[in-house]
Amino acid sequence: MITSTPKELQRAGWIIFVLLLVSVFLWANTAAISNFQVPAALPLHTALETATIVLFSSVFIVCWNAFDEIRKKNSVILAVAFLCTAIFGFFHAISFQGMPGFLAANDMHKSLSFWLLSRAIVTATLLGLAINFGDAAVSPKTSRRFLTAGVFLTLATSLLIFIRPDYLPSSYVEGSGQTAFKINCEILIICINIITASLLFKQARAFPKALPGEHLQINRAHLFLASAMMAMSEVYFSLYINANEIFVVIGHVFQVISALAIYRSMVAINIHGPYATLSEASKNLVATTEELQRHKRRLAGIIETAIDGIITIDEEHKMILVNPAAAALFGNTVEELIGSSLNQVIPSRHRAAHDTHVKKFGETGVTRRKMGTDFDDFYVTGLRSDGSEFPIEASISSLIENGQRYYTVIFRDITERKLAKEKIAQNHTQLSQLSSALQSIREEERKHIARELHDDLGQLLAALRMDLSLLQRDSLISEKSQKNIASMDQLILTSITTLRRIATDLRPRALDEGGLFFALQTLRKDFSARHGIDCELRANEEQLMLDDAHSTAIFRIIQESLTNVVRHSKASEVQIEFNRTPESLEFSINDNGQGIEETDMHKVSSFGLVGMRERVKAMHGRFELSSVLGEGTSLKISIPLSEDLDAQNNFR
To answer: Same structural domain for residues 434 and 398?
Structure first.
């Protein structure tokens, strides 16, 4: 709901109010004021009528031509109506009493007949706009026919008035002034204009600019002013007796104000408005151009000062943009590279592949060259002016401008990084080899110590127990000594058991004597018996027929995993499952414990996990550790198997 009156409507209302007050004063003193005779009334009348004709002709031009061939019913009606009004106004002006050739009272009747017709057309047109019968498209052919018919009827009526004015009711009598017919017509026009003004006021208040979906933009506030001015002007035109009275001039002044308001309502909004918009667009264009220039200078500054090389080439691989950093990397100047082929900075052996890559990138937009990725995946070799080569990390992009594709490459010299990475890779390889050697040495030492403990110390303890057994049979030994000997025998037995456990932990004999399957079975039984955790092994002996290195590594991985279960997981069940294919051996260790925090999986201090990863890496395998808090942990390992190993197992 509209709660405020638009400013234009407020101004129109104030103008109407002020002029109405002045008019009421003049109308109340008609008898006295009508005595004022205007000198040179005829030229003044002609000038005011001419102004009105020009304004109405402008309205016709706008309504007819502003939309080229795209016309609507309202714009066609307005154009034809105001053209016919202008024609009738012209004939009214030239036939007004006193004009050359029009001196008789009958001529004044002709002039007023033209006047009534022009006022009737304008009044009916404004009322039609106020009622708003709707709008519809009109074909160019139909609009031209309507224009032709309107002009024809106007000219035919004008000819009739000039030739046979007596066919029309009399509108003026010499000495008596206007007839009752003419005054009644004026009263009817006044009433219609008042109704029109009220309708336009409501529309202007609801729609300050124009009605929604209106093809021809019309300012209703100005039309409201025009209708009110026409109503007041018709009052003045109904009061005079002869053409020299001041009321004629005042009425024509109000008529010009009305015509000017109509002009403003249609011409200004449809012609002046677009020109104002164009002017504003021109200012915005200038501002945008300046902003683009600033961006261009900023971009040029960035390119010139960038520490990375930047090169732009066209479809023929001609360099059209080279920044100083790029020129310096290749040992050239910018001027030397501009316009030359990109092949100048690429070794000859790489040129064909590079051309193919650029062509494919232009077609698909896909490239493997991305700055910041592993340069081992893909890097470019650059060629300096002295013939030396160096590695380049580069990213490429493209754009199409005026149908021409351009490629831009941003690159940097990665010689130092490549050397550093190669050094790191070499050190890592050496560390891995050292770790593998230490694991082997450690395993050999454990095997040696376990063998020494079992074969030497174990034999000695066994012999010692045998001696004690012989000593127990001696009848000369007292009962007290017998008890001491029995205690010593029990200690020796405990020592032998402990010795065997230590030797097994160092190197289970089942691994050397029965293979990995029996070693894991022994480990499973000992683990369950010692810690009370149910441990299930899902495997068969054929799956686990491996060489000593693989068997030892897998046994140690599972042994370390079970140790972690005891230390950290608080699990009640553990499953160990093996699956073997001709290509790989996969096994998993799953528990139902409390799980591992994500951060704990990658701690440097987690030596058990680090050791398992190193063992898997030494066998070129894949190590995957996953865990869900409260649900347990899963370790999955996949180890590739060589053909030699399979052949060895088949032989067995």
So the answer is: no
Alpha-carbon gap, residue 305 to 289, rounded angstroms: 24
Does 1 map to a domain? Answer: no
Which letter, b or e, does each residue of 8-43 get, where b requires 16 or more Cβ atoms within 10 Å of its Cβ? bbeebbeebeebeeebeebeeeeeebbeeebeebee
3-state secondary structure of 398: strand
What is the Cα gyration radius of the chain? 55
Residue with tokens 């010299």: 413
Instruction: Write out pLDDT tens, residues 427-439.
Output: 777 776 776 667 6
DSSP codes, 516-560: HHHHHHHHHHHHHHHH--EEEEE--TTTT---HHHHHHHHHHHHH
Two structure tokens written together for 330: 């290749």
Q: Is residue 312 domain-shared with residue 381, that is, in the same domain?
A: yes
The predicted-structure confidence for 78-97, as pLDDT tens digits, reads as follows 889 989 999 988 988 888 87
Domain for residue 12, yes or no? Answer: no
Looking at the domain assignment, is residue 319 inside a domain? yes
Q: Are 177 and 241 in contact (CB under 8 A)?
A: yes
**pTM greater than 0.85 (yes/no):** no
Nearest to 240 by CA among 27, 19, 24, 40: 27
What CATH code is carried by the domain that includes residue 581?
3.30.565.10
The residue from 440, 475, 507 where one domain ends is 507
**Top-confidence range, 178-187, 277-286, 363-372:** 178-187
Q: With CA atoms as reference, report the closest residue to 265 among 197, 229, 218, 225.
A: 218
Per-residue tokens: 8: 């234009």
Answer for the pair 258, 224: CB distance below 8 angstroms, yes or no: no
Local structure of residue 166 (DSSP, 8 states): G
- How far apart (Å, rounded) are the C-alpha atoms in residues 559 and 556? 5
Of 427, 306, 462, 327, the C-alpha closest to 371 is: 306
Residue 407 belongs to domain spanning: 306-413
If asked whether residues 355 and 453 sit together in one domain, one would say no
